Amino acid sequence: MAGIENLKERLLSDANEKAANIENEASMKANSTLEEAKSKADKIIEELKEKAERDGRERKERIISKAKMEARDMVLKAKQDAIDNVFRLVVERINNMDIASYRDLFKKLILNNVETGDEEIVLSVKDKNKFDQNFLFDINRELMSMGKLGNLKFSQETLNISSGFILRRRGLEINCTIEALIRNLRDELEAELAKQLF
């Protein structure tokens, strides 16, 4: 019986040892799996943090870029408005000139734009009564001294414009309205004016 007891004890001891080994091995595998899972989780967390930081930086850059574009657009609009105001004031000042200055301006415009001296001058409705035959006589005399015909005449027709005139000759027209002159001048002067204003 002692042999059976010894055998039983050895089997129990072997089984306990095997169980302990299995338990140790399982514990080691569990710890290894746990460490691996923890490492993977840490890596995923780190990747998520990096992605969040990257996304945050990109979003911040987009917001800053958009804000810069909006600010640039606002500055450009303010500059454009300022330039518009300058040219609007020019038109206003021309329209509010005293009669002598206004006639002098018209005389210069006519002399600079007449080609032959036999054109017809079409005035605006509001300017019709500001110019008389004496005004025309002086201009025709000056045209003749420049070697041109002195046959300018006022048209019976009037235009619905704020100021300026149209020179007509045989179906051809030269637009000398203040709006057209300012528009042409603006094309030439806008860049220079922007430099001076800003």
TrEMBL record:
Coiled coil ranges: 5-54
Keyword Membrane (UniProt): no
Superkingdom, natural source: Bacteria
InterPro entries assigned to the protein according to its UniProt record, in alphabetical order: ATPase_E_C, ATPase_V1_Esu
Keywords: ATP synthesis, Coiled coil, Hydrogen ion transport, Hydrolase, Ion transport, Transport
GO cellular component: proton-transporting two-sector ATPase complex, catalytic domain
Molecular-function GO term, any one: proton-transporting ATP synthase activity, rotational mechanism
Gene Ontology terms describing biological process: proton motive force-driven plasma membrane ATP synthesis
Keyword Manganese among UniProt keywords: no
Record family assignment: Belongs to the V-ATPase E subunit family.
Function, as annotated: Produces ATP from ADP in the presence of a proton gradient across the membrane.
The name this protein goes by in its record: V-type proton ATPase subunit E
Organism: Caloramator australicus RC3
The encoding gene: atpE
